[in-house]
Structure formats: structure tokens, C-alpha cells
Amino acid sequence: MNNPSKPNEPKPAPQSRPAPAAASTHEHGSAPEQAPVSGRKAMLTLGLIVAVALVLAVIGILTRRHGDQVLAKETQQTAAPTVSVAPAQPGAPVDNFVLPGNVTAYTDSPIYARTDGYLEHWYYDIGAHVRKGDLLAVIATPELDQQLAQAEADLATAETNAGNASVQAERYKGLVASNAVSKFDTDTYVTQAASTSSAVKSAQANVQRLKELQSFEKIYAPFNGVVTARNVDTGQLINEGAGQELFHLQALDTLRVYADVPQLYSQTVRRGMKIALTFPEYPGKTFWGTLVRTADAIDPASRTLLVEVDVDNRDRQLMPGALAEVHFRTPPTGPTFVVPTSALIFRKEGLQVGTVVNSAQGAVARLVTIQIGVDDGATAQVVSGLHAGDEVIQDPPDSLLDGERVTLVKPGSQAAGGF
After folding, report:
1. Which value, in Å, is the radius of gyration of the alpha carbons in the chain?
2. Dihedral angle at the C-alpha atoms of 66, 72, 78, 84, nearest 10 degrees?
3. Per-residue model confidence as pLDDT tens digits over 273-284
């Protein structure tokens, strides 16, 4: 058993814990000093850095150059137009050619009014056959009629005054010889007689002018022909001048057919030649005309010679305004080639086609000036400018230039840079 503590015995004092060790005086101080780097090691490190930088720069330059080359190549290939080519097809030698002809009336005249008024009556309508001198219409001109009446009255007054002055002058001439009147008065009356005579002539001219205008109240046919237009009706206001056409008259017994002959064949046409004409409304039928005249000059805009062919039309089978096919014959020419009309290039340099040749740069376009013969709308015969084996661009772009690189596409093949 433990002995109970005695009262009033002091308790032992608690032992105190040992104090923590003091913090190191180097806990927040600077790092210990390192040994200095040698100069050789620094130079090696710098050289290594420079070498890496140079390698990276060379790689970047080579990469960029390669990219520029690839871009330039792709740009050049993309910029080169893609064209389809085909060899020029030989055609038969040209011994005739057909040109479109414009059919016109032998005489074609619009009829205008030469006086102002109202249309009182017309006598012929469209399609009517008239003879020279037939009355076409009558214009009512009441104002002109009154002007004529006034002018005739003025003429009568002038004639009366002139007669009186002439009598007075003759009387004074007789009296002056006997000194019954003065020489001054005699000269006055003689001068008055002369002036009144001039006034009479002026009044006569005015009357004649108004009569001429009054004669234009009646409109007559100027030649034998057919009325092809009537542009007025009864009661319509008529104004003098070319601003209003009353009738249109055409002579149809003989028709003129105009055609433009290419310069190449201008020396093969002669006056008096018999020319065959065909019309779509008469299939299988040929009409014959005579080449009566040419312009004797080449049109600088179209490089063609205008010719006129007259054809007899007394049976009224043909009508002016129609389109004819004019058949010309010419001496046979040399070899020709047939190309589609879509291959033709129309520029200020003249008619051209595009061909393709091989060069050191690849396929290159060459523009060739040509002359054509027969052109049926779908194909054209080339009589000069092309040679056998020429590769013709079938549908050239509008921007095609001579010497330009092109990308070829032949029928049934893919795009290529050469033949």
C-alpha cells in the first residue's frame, strides 16, 4: 500500500522542458559562393549557340525558298490558260464562195409634205401599185390660200401704181422738151416709174412662190412603184419637212442585191458577170442576176468590196428587205484548211487564229493572221496563213497573247504542259 501523502508536505516542483535550440544564424543568409567559369568553357558554349542559330537560319531560308519555288510553279501553272487544240483539217480547193446579200428596191423613196395643213383625203393604201403622176393624197391649206389671195391683191395694186407712174413719166418727158415742166420733176416721175415696176416684179415673185406651195397640196407619185407604207390618215395635222413621212414608195420591177466581197476575191468579180441567187423561201430554185457595178474601193473597216447585182422582178416573186445567198465563182486557189468559227479571233490586227508550238518553256501560243474563204457559220475555210500539221486552238480565250504559255487539253486527255 502506498503511504498517503502527508498533509502540509510540499509537492515537488514540475521539471521544466529543455529550451529549443537557437535558430541557425545562416538560415536567411546568401548562398555560398560558386567557383568562376573558365574562359574556354564560355567560348565553347557561345560557339555552340551560334552554330545552332546558323543551322536554324539555313533551314528557314531553304524552307522559304522551296516554298517560294513551289508557289511560283503553282502560280505559273494556274496562270497559264487551258486550251483545247486540234490539227487543222485540209479542205477542198475553193472555186466558188457564197455571201449573204441584202435585197433592196431599185428606187426607194419616202414621201414628205412641202406645206402645212390638214390631210383632206388619201387615195392609195399599202400594197397599191401606182404609176408616176398618180394622186396619192390632198392636203387642205386654208391659211396658204388666204396668203395667195392677199399676194394677188398686192400684185394688182403694184401693177396699178406702176401703170400710173409710167403714164406720168411719159407725160413729163413730152412736156420737158417744150420747157413746160422742170427737168427735176421729170426725173422724179421717171424714177418713180422704175421703182413701181420693180415692186410689180417683187409682187409677182411672191405670188408665184405661194402658187408653188399651193401646188404641194396635192401629193403625186414620183415614179412607178408600190406603196409600202402609209403613215397618215384623214384629218391629221401635216407639218412641212422631213419630220413626218406620209407615204413610202418602192420600185420593184428590178431589185438591187448588195454583197460585200472579201478583199481576197475582189479581183475575180467583173461587171456583167451572171450571178446565181438563192432564197430560203424558194428551196431548190435559182434566180439569176447581173453584176452591174462595184464600189471600186475596199472598205477599210471590213476589208471588203461592195458589189451590186440587179435581178429582174417583174413577176413579183422577190421582195425587198429579204436576205439572199449570192453565189460567186472564182479561179481555184491553193490548199485550204477548215477550222470552226469558234477558233477565229477578231482583233485590230485582223482576223487571226491561235496555234500552239513547243518551246524550251513548254507549250506556247502563236497568233497567226489568216484569210478565209467560204464561211457557213459553223466552219470557215482558211485559204492562207495555216500549214499542214498546225495545232489550232479551238476556243481561244479573249485574253490570249502571242507567246503566252498555255496548258494543253486534247480531246479525251487530261491537261498537260506540252504535246
Report:
1. 55
2. -100
3. 999 999 999 999
